[in-house]
From TrEMBL:
Molecular function terms from GO: pyridoxal kinase activity
Start and end residues of each Pyridoxamine kinase/Phosphomethylpyrimidine kinase domain: 32-265
EC number: 2.7.1.35
Taxonomic source organism: Parabacteroides hominis
Keywords: ATP-binding, Kinase, Nucleotide-binding, Transferase
Stated name of the protein: pyridoxal kinase
Organism superkingdom: Bacteria
Top EC group: transferase
Length: 286
């Protein structure tokens, strides 16, 4: 019988932007609101995120990461999940693999969000060979959460814009699972222009699911981090893969919709904070 007083703990390995809602400034409050202890290992510290904002400061923390994990290990800290996001170099990819091995236990979950590309293009800070490094990291994950651009790079295939067919999406999902992860959640999926959502695949039972919401106009920074953080929050609250993906779709769409209605600057991220009460209701925590 599960101990309902037991609090689950996540190691969140992401960068930290002082302004702009993404990475750790998204992951920590969402996981915490869901009742999960969130432990941050920052990969870099920035004054703002990099999407559409110039002049930001950037401090690389690669040289601190091994000491971070060794100190945690010396304290015998255990994690129910490890959650990696933006990683700025090959060295950081290798350090995160070390982290996975150091803290791997029988029941912990490794979730990799392979942040490196969107809208058909690799982010400008990365060289093309970075995708191969991310592919090797994804092989060690239990679940990965790529968008369709990242999926194409992981599979060494050409990116194709949507709308998509079910046969195409299922081929992508199954090929991604051959890299190693048991579960795939693919974002940016749509079969019709007015919808947008995610597709799931569970290799153990060869099952696929689709979760959609009405498309909201515009492009918004940080929504992938919101989605992955909400997904992990639901999974760690013992919700099934498909239901967790639906929770994440709903929470992300609600955050975008609130921002769209407020007509605030899209570069500054979306208003996920005021959507947390409904998110917690979907998790059945309130």
């Amino acid at each position: 019988m599960e101990n309902k007083d037991y609090q689950k703990r996540v190691a969140a390995i992401h960068d930290l932007s002082g302004f702009g809602k993404c990475s750790l400034t998204v992951a920590l409050p969402i996981l915490s609101a869901a009742g999960i202890e969130a432990c941050a290992m920052p990969t870099a510290i920035l004054s703002t995120h990099t999407g559409g904002i110039s002049g930001y400061t950037y401090r690389d923390l690669t040289s601190d990461m091994r000491a971070f994990m060794q100190h945690w290990k010396s304290l015998d800290i255990q994690f129910d999940a490890t959650y990696s996001g933006f990683l700025g170099s090959f060295e950081q990819l290798d350090l995160v693999k070390e982290f996975f091995e150091l803290f791997r236990s029988k029941n912990n979950l490794i979730l990799v969000d392979p942040v490196m590309a969107d809208n058909g293009e690799l982010y400008r800070i990365f060289q093309p060979e970075f995708a191969a490094g991310m592919r090797s990291l994804c092989k060690k994950a239990d679940i990965i959460v790529p968008n369709l651009t990242e999926a194409a790079l992981l599979l060494e295939e050409s990116y194709h814009p949507g709308p998509y067919t079910q046969a195409y999406i299922e081929k992508i999902l199954k090929n991604l699972s051959k890299l190693g992860p048991e579960k795939i959640v693919l974002t940016g999926v749509y079969f019709e222009e007015e919808e947008l959502g995610a597709a799931t695949y569970d290799k153990r039972n060869d099952s696929t699911g689709y979760l959609f919401t009405k498309r909201i106009p515009g492009s918004y920074h940080g929504t992938g981090d919101i989605f992955a953080s909400a997904l992990l929050s639901a999974l760690l609250n013992n919700i099934s893969l498909n239901e967790s993906a639906q929770v994440a779709v709903n929470f992300t769409a609600d955050s975008i919709r609130r921002t769209y209605n407020a007509k605030t600057d899209h570069r500054f991220g979306v208003n996920f904070e005021q959507c947390i009460p409904d998110f917690l209701k979907e998790l059945k925590l309130i």
